[in-house]
# Entry
Amino acid sequence: MQTLVVIFFSSALTNNIALTYFLGMCPFIAISKNAKAASGMGMAVTYVMFITAVANHAIYYLVLVPLGLEFLAFLVFIIVIAGIVQTLEMLVERFFPGLYNSFGIFLPLITVNCAILGLSLFMILKDYTLLQVVFYSVGSGLGWWLAIVTMASLRKYLILSEPLESLGDAGITVILAGFMALSFFGFSGILSV
Amino acid sequence: MESVTKSKGFTYFIESLWYNNATFSMVLGICSALAVTTNMRNALVMGLSVTGVLIISSTVLSAIRSMIPERVRLITFMLIISTFVIMADFLLKVYLPTISKALGPYVGLIITNCILMGRAEAFAIKHAVWHSLLDSAGSGLGYLGSIMVIATIRELLGSGSLFGLRILGSWWQGWGLLMMPAGAFFILGFYIMTANIIQKRFMNRCK
# Structure
């Protein structure tokens, strides 16, 4: 039981998927300009991460491993992710129009978000059980959400300051991410993994 | 030579290598640029894998571009790319097992590397095979160059070595920060800045 809690917090804070493993960097930089969009994207990522991780876990261990087709994992994972994202988008748009406006519009961007595929690949490398995957994926998703929302709130204050022109929008964001990574590194004190 | 530098293919090559460099101009595909650059050997292998997959998949895509229905093109791109990524993964596992292990999931993540999808959607689907090949070679080499620069700085200052060989004497303590994730962000930020400055100077002189 304790390990589940440890998995959850380590994936959300100390081993934050955005700031330690650098996954999902493209949207992290592109969509963190305003906090609302960032939060929507973060929610969509958490949701899709959870569903695809569970689905991929089931497919990998119930279908691919017994058939000895582990090498197809990349191909199968990406198809599963693309399929689930597309279905989810249609369902959310049809049945939850309110939710669609808050995060559904980000769903199409998610298929190529490397955090989603990355999570499935990490899960296989770490040999997690299904229950552990549930905690791992939700933890990672929330960690990503926390990182992008924090980034968006920080970037709001960039309007007031004048970073070097040659750094550009992306450059200053990357440097900011560096400082965030440093501060997230501080969380490693709370867990002894 | 004159005709070569004036040719359209060459322009595409230079455009994607330098003016639209994936790392510092477009800031694409930086997940792996940050993750694998703790040492130069990993960066070189990763850069070559990305370049290889990019060139082959763009060329194939461009060759069959008239057969791909518009509506399913993204999934087609993905399937083609992931096929070649699986091959690259196999090659690394067989010939470079230690590096393959060190790279971990980042080889598989080439599938979702924005550079590949970006070049497929923006270029390969609309242009002839030869031009797509040059364009993707430019993008790939631009990416390779960028991550090699970052890896050189990080490995040299972080652990005092290059390609695993100790360069700086034992007096160099190793700048631990650069080996941490935060260091990767800082170096990338300064790299983007430096590249932007150089690019601006260079462009002004051309005018």
About this structure: Chain B has a mean pLDDT of 87.
